[in-house]
From TrEMBL:
CDD domains linked to this entry: MFS_MMR_MDR_like
Keyword Transmembrane helix attributed: yes
Subcellular location: Cell membrane
UniProt membrane topology term: Multi-pass membrane protein
Keywords carried by this UniProt record: Membrane, Transmembrane, Transmembrane helix
UniProt cross-references to Pfam families, sorted A to Z: MFS_1 (PF07690)
UniProt keyword Transmembrane, yes or no: yes
GO (cellular component) term, any one: plasma membrane
Segments passing through the bilayer: 40-61, 73-93, 105-124, 167-188, 194-213, 225-246, 252-274, 302-323, 329-351, 363-386, 392-417, 438-457, 463-482
Gene Ontology molecular function: any one: transmembrane transporter activity
Xref: InterPro entries: MFS (IPR011701), MFS_dom (IPR020846), MFS_trans_sf (IPR036259)
Protein name as it appears in the record: MFS family permease
Organism the protein comes from: Saccharomonospora amisosensis
Organism superkingdom: Bacteria
Length: 499
């Protein structure tokens, strides 16, 4: 048993108590389990469901709005409500798996995701759908953290490398499948159900996954971290107080509670910061450990991550609405138009590791610049040709965006975590994932709300041009910020000197 300390401002702070670590070539010691091929495929199937779901829902948004009579602002909650819930519960979900068994939480999460998918598919109105999506996000937060945890606990050496590679490929293929499957299912209008099969398709797949979970080995941490209830509640309250007024305020005529809710956000964030520092000083590990946030690569990288994923969340939402309601593509056409983005993201992600080994930190800014070129090309094609643009004309722009995003995101995550000590990699990954998901949700809530406002008052063409133009500006900003990130080839010297 060993205690992990950080030296910060003259004080030694306990961050985690860890079990003795094994060498990378030693078999895992937790219950002596080894992950079989069947077990890995089961984990990847479970991981694919929420990943596919994120992209499949974007394509179906206009059909959902037309069927349930929902305006654009309320449709934002279908995406943003899911994102906020997932962001807040992701780290607690991982800690529950450490404490009560990762296989057990994987099964619970998969079963809950299956049931909530059925609830989404049967939703009679938009309010029920939003509530079901929130519950679905909570299920995903129980399910997904267990996948990497089981891989880490039950594999080693080359077996672990192959498993992690397949996990990455699974994420990329899920992105592609979501874009195409969403368009196909909505366009097919199976049994007259319209958009509902995008959720109902999860039910038989989820049941199949549950039957296969017997092949997944059980594991748990010897010293699990407690769930930070206060931090989780305060972060969730802050995000909701920001999101709800921004998405619903305009449609409701900005009632008195909307400015009051927005005014509460900084107060809640201050309270969150105080509770996180207090928890860390008392020897507990909070939701967002302040000492981890002071690592230079984390501090700078999270700023880049926040800006980038705010733009990305808005981009996916705005494109889904514009392609169908503005350019008249229909769900299948919209899926085909965005498919090159997914293919480009997947291919660039695979190439990024080799490129970083050769060019280091420069790969992330290069990816941002490629994305910028794609955004500018998209504006140059769509705005002059509106509304007569065809899918074929959009393919080069969406492909460029995907390649740039794939290079930037994969490299960015590596850069952000490069200065975090190895024993704290799990803590750093949790903070990074929480930031990513919160930014995606807030991108829909902020820039998506601006898009809805301009679309109603001026027009869809102008709203699309403004929001994509703003994302181009954000891309320039993250390119500049990205140059301050450390070179991952330089090891952890910077972190060591700063702690």
């Amino acid at each position: 048993m060993s205690t992990l300390w950080y030296q910060s401002r003259g004080r030694r702070i306990v961050v985690a108590v860890t079990s003795p670590t094994t060498s990378p070539t030693s078999p895992p010691t937790e219950h002596g389990s080894t992950l079989t091929t069947a077990g890995l495929l089961t984990l990847l199937l479970g991981a694919a469901l929420p990943l596919v779901d994120f992209f499949i829902v974007n394509v179906a948004l206009p059909a959902i709005g037309a069927d349930l009579g929902a305006n654009t602002a309320t449709l934002e909650l279908v995406i943003a409500g899911y994102g906020v819930t997932y962001a807040v519960l992701l780290v607690p979900g991982g800690r529950l798996g450490d404490a009560y068994g990762r296989k057990r939480l994987f099964k619970i999460g998969l079963a809950a995701f299956t049931v909530t998918s059925l609830g989404c598919g049967l939703a009679a109105n938009i309010e029920v759908l939003v509530a079901a999506r929130v519950a679905q996000a909570a299920a995903a937060a129980l399910l997904l953290p267990q996948v990497l945890s089981v891989i880490q606990a039950s594999t080693y050496g080359e077996h672990r490398s192959r498993a992690m590679g397949r996990y990455g490929a699974n994420a990329g293929l899920s992105m592609i499948a979501g874009q195409l499957l969403g368009g196909v299912l909505v366009a097919a209008d199976i049994a007259g159900l319209g958009w509902r099969p995008i959720f109902l398709v999860n039910v038989p797949i989820g049941l199949l996954g549950l039957l296969a979970t017997r092949s997944v080995p059980e594991s748990r941490s010897r010293d699990p971290l407690r769930v930070d209830l206060a931090g989780t509640a305060l972060l969730g309250a802050a995000l909701l107080c920001l999101l709800i007024p921004l998405t619903e305020g305009r449609a409701l005529g900005w009632p008195a509670w909307t400015p009051a809710s927005l005014a509460a956000v900084p107060l809640l964030l201050v309270a969150l910061a105080v509770t996180q520092r207090r928890a860390e000083r008392s020897g507990r590990v909070p939701l967002l450990p302040p000492t981890v946030l002071r690592v230079p690569s984390m501090r700078r990288g999270l700023a880049v991550t926040s800006v980038f994923f705010t733009g990305f969340g808005a981009f996916m939402f705005v494109c889904a609405v514009t392609l169908q309601e503005g350019l008249g593509f229909g769900p299948l056409g919209a899926g085909l138009a965005l498919a090159p983005l997914a293919f480009g993201f997947f291919a660039a992600s695979l190439a990024s590791t080799r490129l970083v080994s050769r060019f280091g930190q420069a790969v992330a800014p290069a990816g941002f610049m490629i994305q910028l070129a794609g955004l500018l090309l998209l504006l140059a094609v769509v705005l002059p040709g509106w509304p007569g643009v065809t899918v074929l004309y959009l393919l080069p722009a969406t492909l460029l965006c995907g390649v740039g995003q794939g290079l930037a995101v994969t490299t960015l995550f590596r850069l952000v975590l490069s200065g975090v000590p190895a024993d704290s990699a799990g803590l750093g990954s949790g903070v990074l994932a929480t930031t990513q998901q919160a930014a995606l949700a807030l991108g829909v809530g902020t820039l998506g709300s601006l898009f809805a406002e301009i679309a109603v008052s001026v027009g869809l063409r102008e709203a699309f041009g403004l929001v994509i133009g703003l994302q181009a500006v954000l891309t320039v900003l993250v390119t500049v910020l990205g140059r301050a990130l450390p070179d991952p080839r330089g090891g952890q010297e910077e972190a060591a000197s700063d702690l």
